[in-house]
Amino acid sequence: MSGQVQQRRVNKQSHLLITSTLVFQLKGVIINNDLQILHETQVQFDADLPEFRTHGGVVSTEDGHTITAPTLLWVKALDLLLDQLKLAGADYTNIAAISGTAQQHGSVYWQRGAQHTLQFLEASKFLHEQLVRSFSTPNSPVWMDSSTTEQCRQLERAVGGAQKLAEITGSTAYERFTASQIAKLSQTKPSVYNNTESETSTGTGSQRISLVSSFACSLFLGRYADIDYSDGSGMNLLDIHSKEWSQICLDATAPNLIDKLGTPVASSSIQGPISQYFVERFDFNPDCKVASFTGDNPASLIGMCLTEGTIAVSLGTSDTLFLWLRRPQTLLEGHILCNPVDKEAYMALLWSVADNPRLNTVSQSHMRATWPYCVAGNPRLNTVIHEGYMALLWSVADNPRLNTVIHEGYMALLWSVADNPRLNTVSQPHMRVTWPYCGHFKNGSLTRERVRDDCTEGSWELFNELLDSTPRGNFGNMGLYFDVQEIIPFVKGDHRFNKANDRVQRFTSMEVEVRALVEGQFLAKRAHAEDLGFNIEAGSRIIATGGASNNKSILQVLSDVFNAPVYVLEAANSAMLGSAYQAKHALVAEHTSFSEMTSCLSPPVLACQPYKDAAQVIITIARYPLCTTRWWGAIVGSSSLSSTRSRHDFPPATPA
Ligand code: ADP
Predict the structure, then answer these.
(1) Residue 230: which domain range?
(2) Does the record carry ATP-binding as a key word (predicted)?
(3) Has residue 490 been placed in a domain?
(4) Ligand 1, atom nearest to 318 Cα
């Protein structure tokens, strides 16, 4: 007994509560200071809250394009979750910080007066009872929505094209991204969107727009939480370079939008103390901190502790490829995000002038009121370029925000090394300019399941036997299987090619079919990674996560196709884990770096090594890219990936 008391004292105030608002369910875990799980529970939306009549956590229109979730469902789920955790023995007095992750892109529309309701919640009542009138539209658009194609094109046109939008926000316009969803609401239901000065405090109109992550954070905070940089990168509204809302994107989306979004903040920031409601109702400690919540993709990036040279492949319902890019490329497919771990990552070339005598001479005179900046974006700066190797300067007075990062005696430089090879030598040791990239492949596990069902009546064991019984390279046969419209490349249907590169209707055996599917899926990912400039080299490695990362036969193909070892993480849920690191990092960020904080964690476990002939096999099937993205480009008369986003058909198949 006394041992237990002591244990409680030791752990006092050291636990973290993490929530995860997914499509089907809300998950909650409490973890201790060593990031071990103490309590875990979930609320299944369809089964536990049937009154909302959701199917798979969402409500769809008949045409299947407009897909939303009832906002109050998520609130009620949180009521249930906190009660369930308490019943399971959780002691909320020990929670030092709360963080969370949520499905990306979805948006919540708070009604005028909602902030007041949030601030003065009555502890004796459920959240959902009190927030029932807090949303200007009862249904939140979610990432599965595809009803905003028109708004996407409008946005791209208004900013000067898809490429321009990608340069600013990291992505071209996507239907599921928040900007087009907000634009649709503003155009089709202006009274819901508008919040004009003339309205009375009881009028309708959304006063604040949250992402699902910042919405969930707001509930704990008792006021509107700010959107974090990384989840904000999934909106088509955030300038990922300045980390401020892009005025041109705001203007192109909806009127007075900046007033409804708040100020974007670093993903590892503390947003404030927990609201009084939770202190009184659940006995949370009033000192408990609420960290920024973020999207599931950035959280996964954090959870996997990705380093440069590592690719992460999440083999979940859909497949996702994560990697770090050295340069914030302008991509017409996939997404560049703000770094969720290191808030200064893109301006990470900070060093003492004293460390680098070459800089001394040029910098002295500019030291106190100058800020070096990339000249490419600002021709005005050319005038002060000195010898072309540094001194891309402008006055801090132009940008007071920058003041905060300039320390006396320090020189801060932001530039792209690749733009100027002469800079390489001075900047290399300090180089930490990396950009998280994430690309989705819709036809992941569900397509593997379909082929499994067709070939083996639903058995993964038999599927693996078939896979293992065919040689790497599949006798030159190759397949591309897209049950639903793929994003990268923009195609649909099953497409099979024989050794001579002719299309065939079917393969001669199920073994060939199964291997063609799995090799084809991973070749698509490798081709895409290489198109982004990621080189698979000696030290490269893959981290696999998600449901199919339990399947060794599939991982072996992944390893062979990338000719790199594949590792798996011991902890299954990388997004949840990422949120936990983030909450902890937010608490200790002042004196501990992220890598120091996570150094105690067990490293990923080696699952597979590539076979010796893997590289040779890849050469044999390296014609793959010709058959996918680049080939598409050739068909439609352009070599760029952008052409893959227009619909087109493969040439007709010949019988096997
Ligand atoms: P989510 O993406 O929803 O988080 P998971 O990461 O749990 O889902 O992945 C679920 C998918 O994992 C399922 O669609 C299933 O097909 C796949 N899966 C589970 N076990 C295996 C297995 N042994 N082999 C291949 N795929 C598997």
Answers:
(1) 10-304
(2) yes
(3) no
(4) 2
